Amino acid sequence: MKRLQRAALIISLVEALRARGSWCGETHIQKSLYFLQELLGLPLGMKFILYKHGPYSFDLSNELEAMQADYLLEDELQTYPYGPKLLPGKGSPQIKEKFPKTLEKYSKQIEFIADKFGDKKVSDLECLATALYVTLNPEGNIEDRAERVHRLKPHIKMENALSAVQEVDTIIKEAEKLKV
Fold first, then answer.
1. Does the pLDDT value for residue 5 go beyond 80?
2. Helix axis angle, 158-175 to 142-152, nearest 10°
3. Taking CA 102 as the corner, what is the angle to CA 99 and CA 106, rounded to the nearest 5 degrees?
4. Is 122 exposed, middle or buried, given 0-12, 13-18 or 19+ CB atoms closer than 10 A?
5. Residues 110, 16 contacting (CB under 8 angstroms)
6. CB within 8 Å of 133: residues ≥ 6 apart
């Protein structure tokens, strides 16, 4: 996928998340795009690694900075200790107008992910994205996967890890018809 096509999708995701009450900081975008790419198969071309707070893409972080520099996204500053919220920038309508077919092709996937994650807190997103990471590399049953989440992220309580793995299993089933 070309950079500006991907930017149009990111802008649409930001709009969809914000419409559902999302804080829409970088973590929200990181985790949502991880699900869009790894679960639903959108060809975003981002490399994700397991990092401090679950799957993370340095490629995406750089892309978000570039989009801000190009006025496609902008920061909405928050009071300390909170990080900024991201919102579409003044150049975003022109980018979206250039790629109506791309946006239409992936609109159901973006809406699905926004519905699932729009109201989630950062800690929930970390847990769910790590649960997907573990589930995509399956070894064992639900309890085994929850234990792997807990081992990878010891600050995530075992009961939260189990709940996240179960929720991810449900999301995977619901998403089956939306895979690209």
1. yes
2. 120
3. 140
4. middle
5. yes
6. 50, 54, 55
pLDDT digits (tens, 9 = 90+) for 107-166: 999 999 999 999 999 999 999 999 999 999 877 789 999 999 999 999 999 999 999 999
Mind listing the pLDDT tens digit for each residue in 63-80? 999 999 999 999 999 888
Residue 119, both tokens: 């109201």
Provide CB contacts within 8 A for 71, sequence distance 6+: 89, 90, 91
Handedness of CA 153, 156, 160, 164 (dihedral sign): negative
Which tens digit of pLDDT belongs to each residue from 10-29? Answer: 999 999 999 999 999 999 99
